[in-house]
What we know:
Elements: E1 16-17, E2 26-42, H1 45-57, H2 62-85, E3 90-101, E4 105-119
Parallel strand pairs: 1-3
Antiparallel strand pairs: 2-4, 3-4
Amino acid sequence: MNNTNIPPNANVPNLIVVNTPFVPGYRIVEIKGFVWGLIVRSRGLGGNIVANLRSIVGGEIDEYTKLLDETRHMALNRLIISATNLGANAVVSVNFDSTELVNYMTEILAYGTAVVVEKETKESQSVKLT
């Protein structure tokens, strides 16, 4: 699926997204497949100039923090839309990866496994210690 034109404020479906290989209180009934959301962003010349000036005195560089936060949200939104298009209602084992490209671009990848989950019908039992 080509999901490269999803805007950052897109209406994203409500899906369960976890970084664990399971969803507590649910059981996986079907694996739909591997899904990802990918985005490559440039900091831009103006942002680089401001960030370089701020790096002289040290501390957090707000422009980069905001850019990377927005970029991660966009990558996650793309992952969710990809999973929804496969018919999943959850994504498990979600992780992020990032790579700097050509000193001024950053690639952010969100990836995981699209699954269909159902609520557990039986109550959890406590572990009995002997």
